[in-house]
Design a protein that fits this description.
Blueprint: H1 11-22, E1 30-31, H2 39-46, E2 53-61, E3 67-73, H3 80-87, E4 91-93, H4 96-103, E5 120-124, E6 133-136, E7 142-146, H5 148-155, E8 158-160
Length: 166
């Protein structure tokens, strides 16, 4: 794909597509006329199961202030205590300003790649049950399909049991 082929995408979605292409991934960013800001909206928009949506959630180390990215299945809630154990410090949900400052993207459109800085990344093991998953691509209406193996390869993320047990 050439840069001209990405001209139809908004700047944030184009940036994600360029990162994917540069990384050798054949994923194609699409922008929809409807919102994909929430996992439920995204699943309805592309006609997949809620669990196939990759929620890119940013947390903050309480002591270090470092950003931590969790790629969670849309059907799951993250066990924040377990995440704290994995990173070695208590964590908290990052606010919108922190997310934008550290990733370059707004909540609701945070992709798994293309961030302003490298993020320690954890991948919900439940995503590996699907042949294909969908991730945000920079805006609340842009996303792309990929395999769980591609998600792991592009993020360098560690696959973990991270879902909150009810």
């Amino acid at each position: 794909m050439s840069a001209e082929q990405f001209a139809h995408l908004s700047p944030a979605a184009r940036r994600v597509q360029e990162v994917l292409t540069a990384g050798g991934f054949q994923c194609e960013v699409i922008e929809l006329p409807t919102s994909t800001r929430t996992a439920s909206e995204a699943a309805r928009a592309v006609g997949c199961a809620l669990g196939q949506i990759v929620k890119s959630l940013v947390f903050r180390g309480r002591e270090s202030g470092r950003p931590i990215l969790v790629e969670a299945s849309g059907a799951n809630r993250v066990d924040e205590r377990r995440l704290g154990e994995l990173v070695g410090e208590p964590i908290e949900r990052a606010d919108a300003d922190f997310v934008k400052e550290r990733t370059g993207f707004a909540i609701g459109g945070v992709p798994p790649v293309g961030h302003k800085e490298p993020l320690e990344t954890f991948i919900d093991e439940d995503l590996l049950h699907y042949e294909r998953v969908w991730a945000a691509a920079g805006t609340p209406s842009a996303l792309f399909a990929l395999t769980p193996a591609e998600l792991q390869a592009m993020t360098g993320g560690r696959v973990v049991a991270i879902k909150q047990q009810l």
